[in-house]
Design a protein that fits this description.
It is globular and about 75 Å long. The strands form five sheets. Strands 1, 2, 3, 4, 5, 6, 7, 8 and 19 form a nine-stranded mixed sheet that branches. It folds into three domains: 186 residues, FAD/NAD(P)-binding domain (3-Layer(bba) Sandwich), CATH 3.50.50; 125 residues, FAD/NAD(P)-binding domain (3-Layer(bba) Sandwich), CATH 3.50.50.60; 112 residues, Enolase-like, domain 1 (2-Layer Sandwich), CATH 3.30.390. The N and C termini lie far apart (76 Å). Helix content is 31%, strand content 26%. It has 495 residues and is of the alpha/beta class. Bound molecules: flavin-adenine dinucleotide and nicotinamide-adenine-dinucleotide. Flavin-adenine dinucleotide binds next to helix 1, strand 2, helix 2, helix 3 and strand 4. This is Dihydrolipoamide dehydrogenase. InterPro entries: Class-I_Pyr_Nuc-Dis_Oxidored, FAD/NAD-bd_sf, FAD/NAD-binding_dom, FAD/NAD-linked_Rdtase_dimer_sf, Pyr_nuc-diS_OxRdtase, Pyr_nucl-diS_OxRdtase_dimer, Pyr_OxRdtase_I_AS. One of its GO terms (molecular function) is flavin adenine dinucleotide binding. It comes from Bifidobacterium dolichotidis. Its cofactor is FAD.
Length: 495
């Protein structure tokens, strides 16, 4: 028997955008129905993105530490990887996170629907069985669902689209065999010994760094002159130098044109052209990871039929609070223009829930969203470069202060290299107040340091006040404190 459900807020997709909206809306007293086609909640981030990748990267850090132990006088025999145990560790990390989230959703009395949803232009949502199921299933948690028929209709006052994205293939090179997307790469039974990677963003660099730490020969095929060509230039150059120093081969100005099975049918032969000399080259590898971005899940016919604005890139246009051009329909996360990051989706989801509940939330400030790449060393960035501050925001008196990170005691102890740049200047209308406009770091623990930078930047703290922050000694965070002092014209442990 098919059924109809009534709810204040229906959300399609239980990734970071969808579940953040659900949690906040329920907290604000709304009845919430969360529809997910996967067997578990969490979306890309928990199931096949942030969490499994960072579990593997944590293991890679342990490998790095053991490999560097001898420089501190600690002798260890050459470490090796038990691949089955590593996979178990990754899977258990994911399970712990997804079951914790499922419990939280249940505790907030959010109704779960397991199935594939389609919003109709009259505002109803039709749910059909998920690809792996014959029935739509409904209940308080994805672990305790009952069959609800082959079609469930949901009548919601507000609907939130949170359908996320999927890996983008190279033109003419479909995924399959030894040509992997990030999901397949995370699930590999055996770590590659020779890995080729095409792309130069977060996925490409994190896998390059992690596989290298695990002992692979890694070749990164980059189409521009450097990885992260759109990021803060100096940081991109420093990170590139460090990755090369660790033995990662970076082939710039290359474009993959074809892949064929490797000799004896194993692995892959990758053909690429160089835009420097227009010559064609080839490399052999166990796998080719294609990491050239993600496509938004907005190309389904039902979504195309809705009266909502979608850009040529397939991204849903919303107002500052996440509302689409269709009344009572909202969009969150990777299907909206901007950084494809979980923490951005969290903040957008909270904002949408508060707007639906009639609160008056502040729009998400895209400028203050930090981005991190979990390489060794890490790359973390928030805010503007000098050029962006001048041309996009119209800031004046903009300067960049470079702090020599090798003067930091913890950097010396770790034998680490990196860079720290702080961009300061005055926002339009505030000519007398110098503020931090951007912070760009390459260093161990940069992922943790960037939160502090975000607070200073987001709160528009005057530079002279920010520079008074007292950092504990000896820590990596002293680099940020010292950079602020230098930017404020009072360099301490540096010239
Ligand atoms: C390898 C990798 C590593 C990453 N690491 C990080 C990181 O360290 N930090 C970070 O901030 N970000 C990271 N990201 C990005 C992050 O995962 C995404 O930004 C985030 O998951 C986006 O959340 P979302 O809710 O928009 O979409 P998603 O997480 O993609 O969730 C969308 C959900 O909607 C469901 N869905 C889609 N259509 C339907 C439908 N019709 N009916 C029912 N359900 C549907 C999908 O099954 C999915 O569960 C990483 C991504 C990848 C690929
Ligand atoms: N630590 C993190 O926060 C983290 C980690 C992994 C992924 N993510 C997110 O996941 C999403 C996907 O990451 P990604 O690295 O795949 O995408 P990305 O958009 O970050 O980077 C894609 C890269 O591929 C290059 N590229 C595009 N087309 C190409 C082509 N035809 N040939 C060669 N190179 C090409 C681009 O120049 C760019 O450097 C992003 O939204 C990213 O923010 C975040």
């Amino acid at each position: 028997m098919n059924s109809t459900l009534q709810t204040d807020v229906a959300i399609i997709g239980a990734g970071p955008g969808g579940y953040a909206t659900a949690l906040r809306a329920a907290e604000l007293g709304k009845s919430v129905t969360l529809i997910e086609r996967d067997a578990h909640v969490g979306g890309t981030c928990l199931l096949r993105g942030c969490i499994p990748s960072k579990a593997l990267i944590s293991a890679a850090h342990t490998m790095d530490a053991m490999n560097h132990a001898a420089t501190m006088g600690i002798q260890v025999t050459a470490p090796s990887v038990d691949e089955a145990k590593l996979a178990q560790y990754r899977e258990q990390t994911v399970t712990t996170m997804t079951s914790g989230l499922a419990e939280l959703l249940a505790a907030r009395h959010i109704q779960m629907v397991h199935g594939q949803a389609a919003l109709q232009s009259d505002g109803t949502i039709l749910v059909t069985p998920a690809p792996d199921a014959t029935q739509v299933r409904v209940g308080q948690s994805l672990d305790a669902l009952h069959d609800a028929g082959t079609q469930v209709t949901i009548q919601a006052t507000d609907t939130v689209l949170a359908t996320g994205g999927r890996p983008r293939p190279l033109p003419n090179v479909p995924f399959g065999g030894a040509v992997l997307d990030s999901t397949a790469a995370l699930g590999l039974e055996h770590l590659p010994k020779r890995a080729a990677i095409v792309g130069a963003g977060s996925v490409a660099l994190e896998f390059a760094s992690m596989w290298r730490s695990m002992g692979a020969e890694v070749t990164l095929l980059v189409r521009h002159d450097t990885p992260l060509s759109h990021a803060h230039h100096r940081s991109a150059v420093v990170l590139t130098r460090e990755l090369k120093r660790r033995g990662i081969k970076i082939v710039a100005h290359s474009q993959v044109t074809e892949t064929t099975p490797g000799e004896s049918g194993e692995g892959v032969h990758v053909t690429y052209t160089s835009s420097l000399d227009n010559e064609t080259y080839g490399i052999d590898a166990d796998v080719l990871l294609v990491a050239i971005g993600r496509d938004p899940n907005t190309d389904m016919p039902w979504m195309q039929d809705l009266d909502i604005d979608i850009t040529d890139a397939g991204l849903i246009v919303t107002d500052d609070l996440g509302q689409t051009s269709m009344p009572h329909v909202w969009a969150v996360g990777d299907i909206t223009p901007g950084h494809g990051l979980a923490h951005r989706a969290f903040e957008q989801g909270i904002t949408i829930a508060e707007a639906i509940a009639g609160l008056n939330p502040k729009p998400v400030d895209e400028r203050t969203i930090p981005s991190v790449i979990f390489t060794t060393p890490e790359f973390a960035s928030v805010g503007r470069t000098v050029q962006e501050a001048q041309t996009i925001d119209g800031c004046t008196d903009v300067t960049e202060t470079l702090y020599p990170v090798m003067g930091n005691a913890r950097m010396v102890m770790e034998r680490a290299n990196g860079s720290m740049a702080v961009v300061t200047g005055c926002r339009p209308g505030h000519p007398d107040q110098r503020e931090v406009l951007g912070v760009h770091i390459v260093a161990p623990m940069a992922s943790e340091l960037i939160g502090q930078a975000e607070h200073v930047l987001g709160a528009h703290t005057p530079l002279s006040d920010a520079a008074r922050l007292i950092e504990p000694h000896p820590t990596f965070s002293e680099m940020f404190g010292e950079a602020l002092l230098k930017a404020d014209g009072r360099p301490f442990n540096t010239l």
